[in-house]
């Protein structure tokens, strides 16, 4: 028996996560994402590969689809798969993912299809129809998908509602991590999972080689820069994505404002952010411990220092802090504000750690430009200060190692990362943790052998005899020498002899030699071999017929 | 065979253990029946037996440990956890020398990777106890086995990244209790980046058969993780351990400080307070060296909204040594800001004083600048009551108490004279080291104050004034002993003003011959009025003293009047200014002094008698006239 793992996406790259795992006849698809970098057929995973040659029915080919979280590279292809490809089986995702996924998908359609006029693969109606098929999951809730096939979600951090998925078919068990974060944020907790007996761990490896320094230092620098700017009368522009980073930074600022008793207003530009805040307020159960604790007194997403915002406020004098979308200053409101505020050296722009090449955010990060041309006619004089702040919700290399060490699976598969870094991490996992590790490319299959376990019963007497030996062994081995050697167990591994009895339609059992006859329902017979005397021959002739040999035992299948 | 096979296995296992052990050691193992239940009661009894065993024969714990160790390999997590707890109980009382420690250690190590978090928790506890015992054993034997401690530290470190919160808390607590850990391992625990073990450590690890998971990396950055933990209990525990371990290595202490500074931005108050406490602990052990990069955070805390945080920060600031004048100045500035915001926090003065005292040369610098400022605005423009000036004066005065001797000469005289009105504040700031009286005399000596100088060549009435001052001081001493600090402050202020009044009266007495009588009269009247205002606010012994003083001043005024009237020989005066009336009034006043106040010391009594004598003399001289 083996676990077959087919990587349809995110193999040696980041984007369109999709892994199909076959265990003991059951087939699970983990994530169903799209690749934002491609505009052709490579945008979606090559679903046809899961089908047997000639077949067209995806519902028969796949037992269930499990989505880890709502990012487009994990969920983007789901409406396509269910509505266009025609998969009608169960789709599982956590409650927050189910709530937020339509927002993300619709936003994507709006930006990509409506604004840029790209060919649309699925429609708004498809999204709605697709979401209707979704079965929501709760954390640590075990769901029996089919007989002998369980799935369970564990908290993964990363974004609101992100989950690690544990799947078990018979004795074989695997964990698919999705994206996760081992260090807690202000608003999200760290990944949390039980110690499970695993055959395979499929983990993301975005930062396979990077070890990040303390988040505290980055926070401190950020707060210092913001405080300095506003106390000098400047305005702070924080371009941020609507979900996650905006809330994270706002919690940080709100807390600092409270402690330092600052009275400067913080604004949120309207739109998705405010809508997202509403969801955060509702989904408190999925946030960090601190927020859950303080929720009883005050909902931390009701920011105390955040004020109502209107567009005309951009021109108001005096210091303020403004969160505006989009995060990379690629257009929209954050660009509009940037145009107004950039020419003053009192102001500050806080950029995220990563900006796509070609955006203004990217230009600002690479060197300090003094003038940015937006198009032929307009250009901006940039005199404001620029602060770069990376809050990545992915775990780093240390976190991946920690999780792998904690779960101690037999095999590890790396996905969602860059090839050279994955190769480096593979080496580390194999040498330091002694586990088999793979990082297949897209459309490659890895086969993991699993050993089948057989449950056997044991008789009381057999166990007693084992324990006797063991204890006697131990008593002889007193006086260990401390410190000279690492312990190699208490020496409880004794050798015991017994007979394994395997009968058809019964659980096999192990028993002591002298119990055998009883369990077979036979009496004990003795065969006497004596020197042949003429007088004895006569006797035998009289009794006769009781010739059962010990050899008959072999017939009943003893080993 | 009806029983489920798994259950059968444990009950048999324990049964056999018991029977085999009872063969060898029949005495404590006689609790046969309960042994067959592989549950909690058994382990409870083991624990009880463990406690009893402390006085028993040396073999007994061996057998118990053995039984418990076998139980810890069962399959029921609760039973396993209980077995570990039992082992800990036995180990607690057992002699560290036997093999008990080794066996417990082995069990703990084996179960550290258990699937059940309860078992992992107990194994961490047991491990911690083993480390503790090992330490005492080696401490008494004198041969320290650093490698073993390091390995234990690494093993505990590997538990600090457990997924279970309780295990993490326990692991950090255990780490904080470790002794004699080598510096390399300690430093590794702060940095997430795996350091190449230097040659010394390398050889330590190499000679051992260390399992792959227990190499250096497992300690990597556990504290960096710990202080970022989601649960504040873990962060608190990590923070506490950081501080506890920092006394083993200065390099470690420095790096730990960086981590601790970051924790000041923590969102939980309990963690911030614990951080400050840890810093205080480090400062007390002298392993806290504040760098310029920490100042921003530090100063932010001094003006924090939370009073507890401010207080804790100030305590630390009073102990640290700041390497640069700039840092010192900014610290003083922020303390002044905080004083302006929270005038009620009088502790700030004492912090200012100790900060000033710890940095003698920097404070001398402040003193010079302040002296300049005072001289520039000498015409009463400088308002002493401003917190800034008060604070700077206290810092300047503190130079005199600092350790570097040569700085003491640098304090300009003007500082001392301005410090006298702040005597109460300063003496509070200094605390119990110097009493106020000697402080005052010190300040006056430094200033060359006329008050104390003129007192020395004594005429009769002046002597009496001097005496009253002594009485004041007596009472003051009493107050200082009994009074609470805030109340004491009031009293001190009162006494302060009394001293001034007495000084004024004395001066008025000296000028009575040379000046217009009216001036003297006005001075005395004003003094009396002030005294009455003070009297109305005070009670107890101070109040009594004050009313006595009023009476005394009355007497002095009558004497002045009488002398004048005698000098003018103005026997035609009628009404309240006539000599008869004055004499009568003086007499009444003196009598009241004699009768209404109990508990004079000898000198005061002599004084009152002298006054009575004087009054009689006046009377006689009048009759002669």
TrEMBL record, chain A:
Q: What is its main location?
A: nucleus
Beta-Casp domain residues: 246-364
| CDD domains in alphabetical order | INTS11-like_MBL-fold
Which GO CC annotations does the UniProt entry carry? nucleus
Give residue ranges for domain Metallo-beta-lactamase: 15-226
The alphabetical list of record keywords is: Hydrolase, Nucleus
Describe the family membership recorded for this protein in Swiss-Prot or TrEMBL.
Belongs to the metallo-beta-lactamase superfamily. RNA-metabolizing metallo-beta-lactamase-like family. INTS11 subfamily.
Recorded protein name is: Beta-Casp domain-containing protein
* Source organism (scientific name): Oryza meyeriana var. granulata
UniProtKB/TrEMBL annotation, chain B:
* GO CC annotation: endosome
- SUPFAM superfamilies tied to this protein: ARM repeat
Low complexity bias: start-end ranges: 8-22
PANTHER family, per this entry?
Answer: INTEGRATOR COMPLEX SUBUNIT 4
What InterPro entries does the record point to? Answer: ARM-like, ARM-type_fold
For the region Disordered, give the residue spans.
1-41
Q: Which protein is depicted?
A: Condensin complex subunit 1 C-terminal domain-containing protein
């Amino acid at each position: 028996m083996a676990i077959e793992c087919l990587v349809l996406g995110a193999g040696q790259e980041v984007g369109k996560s999709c892994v199909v795992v076959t265990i003991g006849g059951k087939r699970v698809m983990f994530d169903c994402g799209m690749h934002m970098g491609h505009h052709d057929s490579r945008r979606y995973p090559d679903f046809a590969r899961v089908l047997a040659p000639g077949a067209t029915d995806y519902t028969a080919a796949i037992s269930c689809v499990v989505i880890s979280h709502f990012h487009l590279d994990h969920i983007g292809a789901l409406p396509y798969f269910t509505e266009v490809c025609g998969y009608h089986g169960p789709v599982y995702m956590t409650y927050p993912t189910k709530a937020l996924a339509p927002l993300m998908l619709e936003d994507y359609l709006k930006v990509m299809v409506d604004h840029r006029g790209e060919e649309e693969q699925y429609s708004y109606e498809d999204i709605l129809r697709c979401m209707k098929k979704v079965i929501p999951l709760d954390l640590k809730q075990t769901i029996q998908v089919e007989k002998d096939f369980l799935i369970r979600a564990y908290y993964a951090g990363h974004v609101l509602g992100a989950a690690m998925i544990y799947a078990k078919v018979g004795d074989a068990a695997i964990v698919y991590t999705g994206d996760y974060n081992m260090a807690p944020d202000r608003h999200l907790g760290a990944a949390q999972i039980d110690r499970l007996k695993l055959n395979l761990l499929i983990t993301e490896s975005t930062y396979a080689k990077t070890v990040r320094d303390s988040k505290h230092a980055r926070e401190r620098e950020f707060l210092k820069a913001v405080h300095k700017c506003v106390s000098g009368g400047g305005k702070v522009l924080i371009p941020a994505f609507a979900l996650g980073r905006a809330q994270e930074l706002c919690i940080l600022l709100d807390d600092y404002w409270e402690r330092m008793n600052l009275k400067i207003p913080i604004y949120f530009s309207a739109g998705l952010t405010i809508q997202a805040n509403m969801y955060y307020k509702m989904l408190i159960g999925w946030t960090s411990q601190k927020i859950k604790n303080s929720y009883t007194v005050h909902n931390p997403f009701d920011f105390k220092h955040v004020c109502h915002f209107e567009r005309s406020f951009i021109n108001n004098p005096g210091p303020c802090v403004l969160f505006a979308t989009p995060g990379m200053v690629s257009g929209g409101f954050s660009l509009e504000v940037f145009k107004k505020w950039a020419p003053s050296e009192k102001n500050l722009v806080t950029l995220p750690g990563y900006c796509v090449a070609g955006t203004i955010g990217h230009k600002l990060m690479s060197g300090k430009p003094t003038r940015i041309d937006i198009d032929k006619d307009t250009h901006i004089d940039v005199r404001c200060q620029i602060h770069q702040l990376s809050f990545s919700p992915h775990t780093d290399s240390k976190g991946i190692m920690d999780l792998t060490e904690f779960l101690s699976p037999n095999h590890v598969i790396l996905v969602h990362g860059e090839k050279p870094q994955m190769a480096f991490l593979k080496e580390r996992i194999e040498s330091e943790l002694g586990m088999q590790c793979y990082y297949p490319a897209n459309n490659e299959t890895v086969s993991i052998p699993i050993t089948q376990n057989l449950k056997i019963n044991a008789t009381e007497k057999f166990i007693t005899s084992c324990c006797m030996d063991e204890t006697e062994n131990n008593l002889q081995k007193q006086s260990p020498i401390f410190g000279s050697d690492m312990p190699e167990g208490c020496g409880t591994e004794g050798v015991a002899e017994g007979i394994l009895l395997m009968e058809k339609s019964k659980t096999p059992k192990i028993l002591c030699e002298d119990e055998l006859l009883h369990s077979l329902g036979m009496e004990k017979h003795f065969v006497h071999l004596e020197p042949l005397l003429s007088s004895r021959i006569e006797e035998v002739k009289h009794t006769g017929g009781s010739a059962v040999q010990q050899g008959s035992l072999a017939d009943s299948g003893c080993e | 065979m009806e029983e489920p096979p798994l259950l059968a296995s444990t009950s048999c296992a324990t049964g056999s253990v018991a029977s085999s052990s009872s063969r060898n050691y029949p005495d404590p193992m006689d609790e046969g029946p309960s042994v067959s239940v592989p549950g909690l009661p058994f382990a409870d009894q083991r624990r009880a037996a463990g406690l009893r065993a402390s006085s028993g024969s040396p073999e007994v714990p061996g057998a118990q440990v053995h039984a418990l160790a076998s139980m810890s390999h069962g399959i029921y997590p609760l039973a396993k956890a209980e077995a570990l707890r039992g082992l800990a109980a036995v180990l607690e009382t057992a002699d560290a020398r036997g093999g008990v420690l080794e066996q417990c250690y082995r069990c703990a190590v084996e179960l550290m990777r258990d699937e059940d978090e309860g078992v992992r928790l107990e194994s961490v506890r047991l491990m911690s106890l083993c480390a503790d015992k090992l330490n005492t054993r080696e401490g008494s034997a004198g041969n320290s086995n650093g490698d073993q401690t390091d390995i234990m530290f690494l093993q505990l470190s590997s538990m600090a990244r457990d997924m279970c919160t309780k295990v993490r808390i326990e692991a950090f607590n255990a780490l904080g209790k470790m002794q004699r850990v080598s510096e390399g391992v300690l430093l590794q625990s702060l940095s997430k980046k795996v350091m190449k073990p230097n040659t010394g450590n390398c050889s330590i690890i190499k000679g051992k058969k260390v399992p792959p998971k227990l190499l250096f990396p497992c300690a990597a950055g556990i504290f960096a993780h710990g202080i970022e933990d989601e649960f504040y209990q873990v962060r608190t525990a990590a923070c506490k351990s950081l501080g506890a371990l920092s006394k083993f290595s200065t390099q470690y202490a420095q790096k730990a400080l960086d981590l601790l500074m970051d924790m000041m931005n923590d969102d939980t108050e309990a963690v911030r307070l614990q951080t400050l406490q840890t810093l205080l602990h480090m400062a007390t052990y002298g392993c806290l060296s504040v760098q310029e990069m920490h100042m921003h955070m530090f100063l932010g805390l001094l003006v924090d909204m939370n009073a507890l945080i401010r207080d804790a920060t100030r305590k630390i600031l009073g102990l640290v040594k700041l390497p640069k004048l700039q840092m010192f100045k900014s610290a003083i500035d922020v303390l002044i800001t905080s004083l302006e915001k929270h005038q009620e926090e009088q502790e700030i003065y004492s912090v200012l004083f100790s900060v000033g005292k710890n940095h003698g040369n920097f404070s001398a610098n402040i003193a010079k600048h302040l002296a300049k400022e005072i001289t520039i605005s000498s015409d009463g423009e400088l308002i002493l009551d401003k917190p800034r000036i008060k604070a700077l004066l206290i810092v300047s005065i503190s130079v005199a108490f600092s350790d570097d001797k040569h700085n003491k000469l640098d304090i300009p005289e003007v500082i001392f004279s301005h410090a006298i009105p702040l005597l109460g504040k300063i003496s509070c700031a200094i605390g119990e080291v110097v009493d106020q009286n000697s402080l005052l005399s010190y300040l006056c000596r430094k200033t060359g104050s006329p008050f104390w100088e003129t007192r020395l060549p004594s005429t009769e009435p002046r002597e009496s004034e001097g005496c009253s001052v002594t009485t004041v001081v007596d009472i003051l001493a009493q107050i200082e002993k009994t009074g609470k600090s805030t109340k004491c402050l009031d009293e001190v202020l009162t006494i302060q003003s009394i001293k001034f009044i007495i000084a004024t009266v004395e001066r008025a007495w000296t000028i009575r011959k040379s000046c217009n009588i009216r001036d003297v009269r006005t001075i005395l009247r004003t003094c009396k009025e002030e005294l009455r205002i003070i009297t109305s606010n005070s009670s107890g012994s101070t109040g009594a003293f004050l009313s006595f003083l009023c009476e005394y001043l009355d007497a002095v005024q009558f004497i002045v009047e009488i002398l004048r009237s005698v000098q003018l020989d103005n026997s035609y005066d009628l009404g309240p200014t006539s000599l008869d009336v004055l004499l009568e009034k003086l007499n009444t006043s003196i009598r009241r002094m004699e009768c209404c106040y109990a508990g004079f010391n000898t000198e005061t009594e002599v004084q009152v008698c002298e006054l009575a004598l004087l009054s009689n003399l006046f009377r006689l001289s009048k009759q002669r006239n």
